[in-house]
Structure formats: C-alpha cells, structure tokens
Amino acid sequence: MSTITVYGSSSDGHMYARTADHFSNARDAASAYALDVSSDEMRVGLGFVSPQNPGDKYRFYRMYLYFDTSSIPDGATIVSASVSLYLVGDLQITPSGFALVLGKMKGNDETYPHDPLVLGDFNNALYTGGGASTPWVYDSQSGMKTFTFTSLGKSSWINDQGTSKFVVMSSLDVGYSIPNYYMLADFYTQEKGGGYRPVMSITYVILPTITTNAATALVSSGATGNGTINDLEGESVISYGAIWNDDGTDPVSFALADNYAAGSDLAAGDFSAAITGCDPETAYYYRAYTQTVAGYGVGSAVQFTTTAVLDVLSTRTDAAEDVAATTATFNGIVLEDAAHALTAYGFVYKKGGDPGTPADPTTAEAYTDLGAKASPAEGAYHSHVSSLVELSTYFFRAYATTSEDGTAYGGVELARTGAETETTFDGGTNDGYLGAYGDNYDNLALAKAAADEATTANYSNVTNNLIYVDSNWHYYHYPYRVWKQRGYVFFDTSSIPSGATIISATLKLYVKEIEDLVGDPSTLYVAENMPTYPHSTLVNDDYNSSGYSNIASIAFGNITESQYNEIAIPVANVTKEGTTKYMLDTGVVGSNDGWCGYVIEDGEDALYPPQLVVTYSTTPDVVLPKVNLGDTWVQTLAAHVNIGDAWVELDTPLANLGDDWVEPTG
C-alpha cells in the first residue's frame, strides 16, 4: 500500500449569500453575494446578522476546497481517504453544536466549483453528499476536524487525473433550523501555512497485472486455462485462476463472470486452471485472474473452442410441413456428426411404403441430396420436394453420410398429400373507400402531408359501386386543399379449411379509369393488418395508414384500364375460416391542380367486382374402422403399424402387400 498527503491550494476560501426575508432565500440562492479566497480563515454555517438591517438579516456561508490528487497512479484502488480542516475556535457555537457536510459536484463533470471560485459556485443544487463522514463542531473546541471517505467517496469522488474539489456545508444549512448568532465556525485556509492547512490523506493499492495465455488440453466439456502473473505491485497473492461465462461471451471481470476456477501449480508467475462444464464444439472466452488486497486483476479475453463428443453418426426424421397436393417439405436433423464432414445429407422417400435404409441413398426410389457440409454439421435441415401424387401417402427418412462412418438414417415419417382446389372469392357490399383532406394557406407539401398522414377520414362511401384510390388538389377556400382517398376490399374466405395449405393467392382489381391528369402516375399498393384493420364495417379510423403494412403492389406501367389487373398476394396474408381484407393506397399526391389515381369497381352490384383467387390443398379426413371398447363400438382415433421395430401412426388405413403399404382393395 502507498499513502500520499496533499495540502489544500490557495484557491480555497468561502462565500456567502444574504437575504432580508426568510432565511431559506439565502440558503437556496443560485449565486453568492460575496466571496473571499485570500484570507487565512474561511467560514461555514449560517448567521443571524441584524434584525435592524433589512438588507442583511441572514447569511449562509459555505467553504470550498481544492486538492491536487493527480499523483495517484492510473488504475489504483483507493483503500482509505480523509480530509482534515483546522477549527480556529474563536467563535461561540450553539451548545448542541452542528455537523459538517462534505459535498461534491453531481455526476462525473468536474466544473464546479470553478478554479478560481466564482459566485455561481454557491448553488447547493450543484452538489451531492454521502461521500464522507460528518464530523461535529462544538463550542470551546479547536484543532483538526476530519472527514473520513465512505466507499462512495473512495470510488468516485477523488480525481486521479487532476484536482479533487469539494464544498463544505453545515448540517444546519442542509436542514431547516432557523439561524441564530451561534451557528458559525471558522477554519484555517492554505494561506495560514504549516500544520494549519487543509490536508488530504489517501492510501491506495494498485491491481496486479496478468496475462491470459492460450488454452490447452481442449476436450468436449472444457479446457485448461493458463495465465502469467506479471506484477503484483508489492502485494501478496490471495487467489488466482480463470473466469468464463456459460454462454461463451467475454466474462469482462471477476465480479461479472458466471464461473471461476481456482488455479494451481503457481511457479515463476505461471499457473493453470481447469475450465469445465462447457458444451461440445462451442467457442468460449476466458480470462486469467489474480487477487491481492487491491482486488482482482484480470488479463485480456482469449477464445478457445471445445472439441466434438466422439460419438457415432446419427440423424432424426421430423414431421413434414407445408404438405400440399404435389409438394411437401421434409424435415430432419443431424444429431451427431462424430467430428467428421458430411459428404451428403438429405432424405429418401417412397410412395406407399418405407424407403428403407440402403447403404447408398441414391439407390432409393426417390431421394434428395443437400451436398457436403464441414464439421461441425449438427443441426436441422429440410428439403422441398415436388412432383408428388395427389391423395397419396409418402414415407420418408432423414439421412447423413460421411466417408468415415457410412450412412446413418432417422426413423420413418409419413406425409399425406391432398387435393388442390382453386376458388375465386368476390368482393362484397362492405367494399368502399375513405377520404381525408388537408388544408394550408402557404405550403402545398404541408397540405399533402396533412391529407396523407391523417389518422381518421373526413368522409366514407360503401354504397357506390366504385372504389376511389386517388388524390387531388386545387384552389378552394384555402390556397392549397388536398384530398386523398383509400380503398378497402373484403372477401369471405371462411370456406378455406384451417388445415389447408395455401399454394398461391392473386388479387384481381378491375380498373375502370386511370386518373393521371396531373402527370403523376403512382404505384398501387395493397396493405393489411388483419384481423383488426380494416373493420368489417368500415369506420373512419380505418383510414390511418400507419395501422397497415404494405404486402404487395403493381406499378403504374403495368396497370391497364377496362380490365382486371392481377397482383400476387403472399400466402400468409390470406385468412382461413374467416374474412380476408385489404387496404388499397397510392404513394403519390398530385403536384399540379387535378387528379391522380385509380377508379376500381367494387362488390356493390358491379359487373367486375374485386376478386381474390386462392389455390390451396387439403387432405381429406380419414375414416378409420370402429373398434369394440367395453362392449361398445367406438370410432378409432388413430391407427398404428410397426415399421422397422417402431410403431408409426398412419393417417390412412393401409395394408402391406409385397413389402409395400397399399390401400386395401377388398
């Protein structure tokens, strides 16, 4: 440990604020009335000066201290610190005495108090306490009064890069006692010299420095961490070892690390520690640490990667997804690659029967191959297969192949293809449009923005057989008035079963007229926010475009008058067993006097209503034979068959014929 003694500077001194009214006006003043930085005494407390002097009835005194603490080494940990002031003892003090409060500027800024002191430094709202003890002063006392720093003061109140600056107040100042003649105390300043000067004593230690070396002895569950102690800064070692986090991130410090391991075999500054509990084939950061009385010193972060578990090659087959009439997505996972690169992986499959586990997957009736993959290769994968037969059951298995291990297969899973249906849904009587307008005397752009960004419509129409998706502006009562109209279409798609796989969707809009009189043709956008917006019965709040997300569009150059125009809709934006609804919008408000947009026929007795064409696939319900349960014949909920020593649930009753599973014919 090292201790330094620092004396106050000639910048120290005091200042006071005064008031003719309530004493709190002086206590809470933002600026002092006068200051003194040249005398050999400084004052703290509050005084009742003269009831007969209307301009100077109460005074509040505060002292300001400056210590050059730049000699503290960077990175040092302060163990103890104190500030001592010499009480002159030439003033009578109230019998109960009062405490002294040391304060520092709030936050990390070092502006207040200024050096040299200015009147604005008086404001007590600039300072905070809690960094030191509160010594008391009493009548007939003199000599040193000491502030002992708390953990807060030691950690953040001392500036090792420059000057540590403080304010000294009285507890009467901080409290609410009414002043009297005996609430003041004088202390010597730096100008007094000798042993009377303000003095600051600081004891500190420096953290040890350490190097983190490369990890050795890597295994699947951990490694050996290695470190070298470079400098103990004169202290003795308390402990040493390695720290790391469970998720592999940088542990940063001993206090923040998830795990630590004590080291062993410290010799000539070098040591090692066992890092355990890690996951296979995973990257980790670790740091070497050393503890002395100064605290924990840590080295820089070093990364290592654990090895694979030496195991056999294995895969798993997972359930199929997005099974349609002629397509499906097969899912699988490589559970363990045995630390070898994959030369091939994918699926083997067969219509109506188990594809088996051939030594060469390419000899199966049908297969997919996703290519090679370097180790580590564990993880999920899938293949999208096509050209399947409608209303058929396919058996499939996941596989993975390495040069060292051959081919490993997962269990068998089933996928039942369905029948493809295309349905055209017409718009209905709820179709319509909403409009809003924006006015501005001086600025067209602001009028446009007011119309486009309105959160509620000014008017609506659901009885016309036309939908207006447009904007216009021209001189009106205001120099600039801009109208904008948005369309809304509704389709009853409740007939699409919840279990259907939607293959494609197309929105067809019959554009009766293109309004481009102002020469500002615009893209036509389709947006949605189902199920809430738009409401099934339009309300003015449905106009707010911020409640929707664009999902599709058609450019002006691709739109033709007097015919249906088609827009591809993402399949995720079609509602099964419910209502599908969209908002139609344009991205342009006209820049000249006139109209810009589209007139579209709606579902209100129109010859060409909006249409939504949806192609989807469904798998027919399987009716299984009844079984006798407790002398009662009940409907079978599921059927299982044993394939490859495993019972597999079937989604249709099949029979085995010539090693193939087929539907019975008799």
Gist of the model:
The protein is mainly beta and 666 residues long. It is built from 4 helices and 47 strands. It has 5 domains: 204 residues, Jelly Rolls, CATH 2.60.120; 97 residues, Immunoglobulins (Immunoglobulin-like, Sandwich), CATH 2.60.40.10; 105 residues, Immunoglobulin-like (Sandwich), CATH 2.60.40.10; 195 residues; 36 residues, no CATH class.
Proper CATH architecture of the largest domain: Sandwich
Largest sheet: 12 strands, antiparallel
Ends apart, CA distance between termini: 97 Å
CATH class of the largest domain: Mainly Beta
Would you tell me the overall average pLDDT? 88
Q: What fraction, in percent, of the residue positions are helical?
A: under 10%
The CATH topology of the largest domain: Jelly Rolls
Counting copies of identical and different chains, the oligomeric state is: single chain
